[in-house]
Amino acid sequence: MNPVTPWNSKICNTPVDILIDSILLLAIVIAYILQILRIVNIGSTQGISAYFVLFTVLFDNYQLAGTLTMTAFSWPTNKSPALELIINSGQLRGSKAFGAVLGLVQVTLQWVCSVILLIVFAAYPRGGNISSPTAFHSSSGTLRALIAAIAFVHAVLFLFPAVSFTVPKRSQPDFGWSILMGLSSILSDWLSPLFVLLRLYPQFLEMGQHSGTFSPFSFAMQALVFIAVGVRWFVRLGQTMWGRRYIQYIPPRYWLDYTYSPLGAWYSWGRLPLNLFLDGIGCTVLVAIYLRLGSNSSGGSSTPN
Fold first, then answer.
1. What is the pLDDT of residue 39?
2. Do residues 161 and 181 touch, judged by C-beta distance below 8 A?
3. Number of other residues whose CB lies within 10 A of the CB of residue 46
């Protein structure tokens, strides 16, 4: 597995970079903890769609798997990837090594927070102190267990293999695992943005019936943080390498060829930051819907948080 690096990348591990990325780490935690604490304080998950939680975790599984493999095999270059410089050769140490992995740590922390949200969602009932006979029933106990199982199986298939080949020491996977990781990468290219879109509709239905424990402050902060993290990854990946082959007409039979296809163009830009931008836009849309619908349903609180 030795992908050709389609970007002019850099490590971004100066003291200023470390400061910015450390602030973003703290912001990720705060953005998620606002929603988690709201669920815990109210004792209910009404207002949060089970399908929204599911697709959030699936999206983050793909994001983390892609970031791990990219950091281990192709960023900042395929000849000297970041984890190779830290773990195997030891060329990056101390603060330089810390700064080099902060981007990966940000994506990892986002995944950890989404898993914690899933656990909290599964642990708290839909009703609690809030009840509504007309609420969008997407959160039965059976469905909660099924969603947790789907998220775990998805991680086993697509995330855990990436972890096994990159942590603690990078290793080259055999042919069979290379095929699986290649398939995972292709599926991630297509499905990651789809998952962001799929989670909006059930959450919209849920909010239309009952705003409940939905925290507009949390989602607004998530929108800002995800876009900021995406910008940081665009800085890391550097100037994109667009060529004439992406502008001219490409016959459909070549659309699955990374060298010539629109999929290849997407990959050249870097699907990780683009997916983060899409995630941030999705959170912005949900906040806009919340503000438009208002929080005057029977379960809404007087002060959103």
1. 92
2. yes
3. 28
CB-CB neighbours of 257 under 10 Å: 11
- Please, what's the b/e burial string for 129-165 (b: 16 or more CB within 10 A of its CB; e: otherwise)? ebebeebbebbeeeebeebbeebbebbeebbebbeeb
For residue 193, how many C-alpha atoms fall within 13 Å in the half-sphere facing its CB? 15
CA nearest neighbour of 286 among 200, 222, 224, 211: 200
Q: What is the DSSP string of 6-73?
A: -B------SHHHHHHHHHHHHHHHHHHHHHHHHHHHHT--TTS-HHHHHHHHHHHHHHHHHHHHHHHH
* Closest residue by Cα to residue 277 from 184, 189, 196, 159: 196
Q: What is the pLDDT of residue 299?
A: 43
> CB 224: neighbour CB atoms within 10 A?
15
d(CA 270, CA 242): 12
CA atoms of 264 and 31, how far apart (whole Å): 33
Residue with tokens 């960023």: 75
Question: 175-188, pLDDT tens digit by residue?
Answer: 555 666 666 666 66
Among the listed residues 81, 84, 63, 99, the one whose alpha carbon sits nearest the alpha carbon of residue 9 = 81
Task: In whole angstroms, give the CA distance from residue 243 to residue 16.
Answer: 33
Query: Alpha-carbon distance 286 to 35, whole Å?
Result: 14
